[in-house]
Design brief:
The protein is built from 10 helices and no strands. With 174 residues, the chain is mainly alpha-helical. The protein has 2 domains: 65 residues, Tetracycline Repressor, domain 2 (Orthogonal Bundle); 101 residues, no CATH class. Keywords: DNA-binding. It comes from Lactobacillus iners.
Length: 174
Amino acid sequence: MVKQTFINLNSAKKQKIEQVMLDEFSNYALNQANVARIVKEAGIARGAFYTYFDDLEDAYLYVYNKAMLQIHDPIKMDKPEFDADLFYKMAYELVCNIEKSKYKKLLKKHMLVNESLLIHNFQLENQKAIHMDTKTWSAMVLTHETIKLALFDLEHKENYFRKLKQGLDCLRRV
């Protein structure tokens, strides 16, 4: 977790470090990113980096979570009934927001590579999925795959979302 020393930095220094980390994690998979490049570009000592973050994964998760908070309103899974329209709306808005976001490259890298490298997060997501009802779980899987397909093949985005709508409508009828 990001440390208080980073949170307490002056705005300009914090923004510079955040931008350098965004560049690093947008251009390198988590297993190829390195602290040396970050500290060199940010103009900070290596030791300072570790007063801000536990490790490289911690820094990555800080940047990734910041990106997600800026472009995505999480779907509230505490609703008692399955809401196909909400899944569709949230997925479509997410793709549109990512397309115009400074985080686009980071999020595509996350989906392609980094998501599978973050085993701890994967295990946490699995715990949530285990407790979902079947319709919600199915909609989540279908929605996440549609988001990936649409982001990596924007030319066919509308086609993917038409299929998502049809799939969600099928789930609604079950």
